Amino acid sequence: MGRWLFGFGTGLIAAAAFLYILGLAQEPAVATEEKLRTAAMQQQLIVLSQQEYDELVERGKKPQPTPEKPPVPPAEQALPAESLPQGGASPAETAAKPAEPKPELVTVKVTPKMSGTAVARMLVNAGLLDADNRFVDTLRTKQKLNRIRTGTYQFAKGTSVEEIIRVMTTPPPN
User: Fold this and answer.
1) Which one, of 102, 109, 142, 139, lies nearest residue 125 by Cα?
2) H or E element at residue 110
3) More confident site: 152 or 75
């Protein structure tokens, strides 16, 4: 038994030394700018130079002029254009006019680390999607499976899967 263990240990040491030497013989992969840009595009990301990044940071520090209209919160973004009254006018713009029957709105909250399957299950439980929906498959096809943003969203019943995905994966305007 002792000779067997000695032989086994010697073999492990020899294999480790061989793998170590083999690893040193290979040259490390060089990440060129073109390779980085290609990999970033495949992941729907953008590569910025240090100068471009610094310019964006500086632009973010400057006081921005106040827009005439306040930014649209995610809850109002979630309404499909066809469900907005008066051809796309916001609810604030149509408050003085007689209201047409509003579609039933459902509020859902996406928390950090929720998977696409968990979000789909939540949407089914909220009554926004059928149990046999293609939510996760559509996310995977559009390469947005890991792009769902956390937050509280409001959707009208009957909103399409594509619209729900668009709203949940699109960052709000700055």
Assistant:
1) 109
2) strand 105-110
3) 152
Exposed, middle or buried by CB within 10 Å (0-12, 13-18, 19+), for 42? exposed
Write down the pTM of the prediction: 0.43
> How many CA atoms does the CB half-sphere of 86 hold within 13 Å?
11
Nearest-angstrom CA–CA distance, 129 and 107: 13
Question: Does the pLDDT of residue 156 top 70, yes or no?
Answer: yes
CA distances from 75 to 55, 148, 154 (A): 31, 15, 4
From residue 108, give the alpha-carbon distance in Å to each of 26, 77, 85, 153: 51, 13, 22, 5
Q: How far lies 37's CA from each of 83, 95, 149, in Å?
A: 40, 48, 24
Contact 157, 103 (CB under 8 A): yes
**For the segment 52-98, what is each residue's pLDDT rounded down to a tens digit?**
878 878 877 766 555 555 555 555 554 554 444 445 555 555 555 55
Contacts of 114 (CB under 8 A, 6+ apart): 122, 148, 150
How confident is the model at residue 33, as a pLDDT? 74
